[in-house]
Amino acid sequence: MKPLHYVSVLFLLALTSCSTVRVATDYDKDVNFTNYHSFAFYKPGIDKAQISDLDKKRILRAIESNLLAKGMIKSETPDLLVSIFTKERERVDVYNDSFGLGWGWDPWWYGSFWGNTVSKTVEGTLYIDLIDAKSNELIWQGIGTSSLVTHGTVDQRIERINKIVSEIMAKYPPGTEKK
Q: What does residue 126 show for φ and ψ, rounded to 5 degrees?
């Protein structure tokens, strides 16, 4: 493989690996999720999320859209309270795109011809908590981790947030997710 093609393939792999959303969920197995028909946002929990108010609005709109699509209604007297929590960290990936020119430990004969490629991305984790409004107990939690669009256009940010929220909410209620 030509060196230019090799670097192109690595770049493409890096781009596609960043586009995925890793999702995990946890829930109370004793809860009958068919009893929940309405929701509202839990402001005290949402206020603690350490992201911009604009991104909070985008996340809440995406959650609302997903819950409405599932047949739930937004209510002043809800069955479920929705809260969010976020974490952010810098992810560093090192791709070894070198090959040896011989064997042994002599750096002139064996070692890095092209070197390593270092990729830095901001990775965010979004927690969506669904709380029983009567008992005030957490009954379902969806967690999505993905790279974030930190320097793109507003439309790119909205699209990324919608994708992350949709993939998390696809797992709610438990047992209805697509396989």
A: -110, 125
pLDDT greater than 50 at residue 16:
no
Give residue 5's pLDDT: 38
- Dihedral of alpha carbons 155, 161, 163, 165, sign: negative
Using CA atoms, how far apart are residues 85 and 11, in angstroms rounded to an integer? Answer: 32
135 Cβ contact partners less than 8 Å away, ≥ 6 residues apart:
none
Domains of the chain: which residue ranges? Answer: 3-169
How confident is the prediction for the chain on average, in pLDDT?
Answer: 81
74 touches 38 (CB < 8 A): yes
- pLDDT higher than threshold 90 for residue 92: no
Reported as a pLDDT band with limits 50, 70 and 90, residue 167 is very high
Q: What distance in Å separates the CA atoms of residue 63 and residue 129, rounded to the nearest whole number?
A: 11
CATH class of the domain at 3-169: alpha beta
Q: Is 59 exposed, middle or buried (0-12, 13-18, 19+ CB in 10 A)?
A: buried
Residues 6+ apart with CB under 8 A from 85: 45, 48, 49, 126, 127, 129
